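Collaboration report, partner site 2.

Our partner group contributed sequences for two proteins of shared interest, and the home lab folded both. The records are reproduced in the order in which they were received, starting with the first partner submission.
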Amino acid sequence: MHSTTSNPAIPTIGSDKNHDLYKKITWRLIPFLCFCYLAAYLDRINVGFAKLQMMEDLQFSTTAYGLGAGLFFVGYILFEVPSNLALEKVGARMWIARIMITWGILSGLTMFVTSTTQFYTLRFFLGAAEAGFLPGVLYYLTMWFPTYRRGKIIALFMIGLPLSSVIGGPLSGWIMNSFDQLHGLRGWQWLFLLESIPSVLLGILTFWALPNNHTKAKWLSTEEKALLQKDLDLDNAEGKDSKHSFKDGFFNLKVWMLGSVDFSILLGAYAIGFWMPTFIRNAGVIDTFNIGLLTAIPSIAGVICMLALGASSDKHRERRWHLSIPLTVGAIALVLSTFVSTNLVLTVLTFTIASGALIGACPVFSACLLPF
């Protein structure tokens, strides 16, 4: 992780002659990938809203719910590396489509759960199905953007994470209210069914929306492809000494330290996603639609901070302080949230600060994994 850099070989954003080229690439790729990430995160955390009904319907304990929610990550961890190896072999378009279609189907099947064993099994396989999506997309973006642009680009892509709550919170609450008992199904069952559909559809659209790399992009001219290749070649030459084997990475202390940072960020982010609806209900809000609206407030803060921190980090060519300060603020806010759980305003406020800080730091951390 580098705090500053002054490499003259790396052009500044303002003097970049290829600005229009990267703007074109950004508009063709990032909105679609952002919606894909939105669908992915929505299918991970909608179990937090479903909990408001399904725990009572299925007689699940809080421990059983927490275990089931967490088993998603066991499957994700076990299959993440194999998934990324497969992506490199079969191509980004094919593998990202496979990931999205299978996780959408498995998420929808959660509507048929009747026991903790079924819940645990589906959550595990949902994680296994989705494994590799985020790192796969980040790897895919390296084929299109040089390192000095990736902080902002990653922020634009990862904005799907907080947007999933901005959109998904009110949507989930509305589905659970409006569809409850329709055709004999409870609101939480409709929630899993309806929110799985976008993932499957986006997975199918991937075959048309994503070229495997810039050389396969029909919407780039020969000249544009050559300009992009020149930038990427220069970028790769700057980082040619940074390539290592899997063994080198596994036994590298810095890799484990970065993994610990990532673990801490995600621990806080998913704690917010899984438990915030319950905190808001415990603070006195009963209607699921209103709960959904309130969960959108912290997520809006996440959107704003993600864009601001990503752009600022790129502008100043600095990652360390753009990461450490938000993480500290987010940790303090999460701790404070446990002491104000009976006060609705303070509950939403502390989660808003925590979400803005932790979610906002995600693209900065991802950019830390890549050289400037």
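Second partner submission, folded after the first:
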Amino acid sequence: MNSTHVSALAGEFSKIVGSDNVMTSENDRYAYSYDAAVLDSVMPGLVVRPTGSEALGRVVKLCNDNGLPLTVRGAGTNLSGGTIPHLGGVVVLTNGLTCILEINEEDLYAVVEPGVVTATFAQEVARRGLFYPPDPGSQTVSTLGGNVAENAGGLRGLKYGVTKDYVMGMEFWDVGGNLVKSGSRTVKGVTGYNLHGLMVASEGTLGVFDKIILKLIPPPREARSMMAIFTSITAASETVAAIIAAKIVPATLEMMDNFTIRTVDNFRHAGLPTDAAALLLIEVDGHPGQVADEAAQVEAICKQHGARELKVARDAAERNTIWQARRDALPALAKLKPTCVLEDATVPRSKIPAMIEALGEISRKFNLTIGTFGHAGDGNLHPTILTDKRDKEEWGRVEKAVEEIFDRALALGGTLSGEHGIGLAKARFLVKETGRAAFDYSARMKAALDPKNILNPKKMVG
């Protein structure tokens, strides 16, 4: 896109969204040239910020009419390169679309615009005595549109599911600027194709979200949090499998290895047991009687599998300390080296011990520092490689280690990504998991819905 073309199009976009909402300076555009993935930045030609539904649709149509690559961006917290734009393309920001349009307390749903911040929405729902469970680690800044586009998970995914389990319906713009409606405000609804389901995890490659209908549920009446301390990470991973095998589904079941424990304690001075090989952070919730029964069972299973100690939070302050320690894992690790590669290859829960063993082997084989934490209860581990991308020799080892992590997860019946998505970072590995037929089927669908390939090109199958 040359400068003359940019200038002319800036004028056209300004007619739609106002000149204050079109960014053309190099500094402004650079701010939207990257996301949280460890990938090179790509400079867009324009950044456009619609503040209303009609304007959003017109922006999409203008991009398509002119064959301009379009990348929708919420907060840019995604970790797979999903919001890195196409060179010279248009970034469409959703931070001007931040209305919670409805919270229905009788029928337990909400209607939101895509730029609503996740934590803001969850807090507003909680004030009404209701519960929106998905809680990605970036929830204080991530947006609901981004959560849907990536099918974001979180600590509560084990019991409550992930974003896709709460999307009841949606309105989205197709490339022609037509508003497509799918789903409903009803609990049951099987009218037509499940188009809103198709949009979940589509990473902005099939349509542009306008409004999202989200399911709400009653909150649990009681919760109990505990920390199990282990002298062996193998014992901790086997305990995770044993808890699930006992037909107990905690609200959260998280793991941290020794390296992560020590790093977090240095970061927050939280009084963690830095000599422990591993910690399990566990919360059970529900009816008070159920909570008491399941907490007792979990404690017994932990002790049977070698936990040297189990600490139960006595009040809200201690409970918050436990979960803050888990949420500190990534920022604490990220401070240690210039580059932090956070992966999310996921395996069936019964295969967690094997995956933990594989990560240790990969760390030794490639001589890399890998801190492991994550949502052990649903098999979604986060091996985090600490490195410096400027060291070309070491970075080569990192790339080989990442590929081996993927291969080992797939060999165990797992998946390339539990919650971070495919984006640019994992696109070349996708066919390893899906097979050629599924990949080609997806590519044909993308080509039919987006014949000019303007919607987030080069992501996934595009």
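Feedback sent to the partner group on the second submission included the following. DSSP finds 16 helices and 16 strands in the chain. The longest strand covers residues 222-230.
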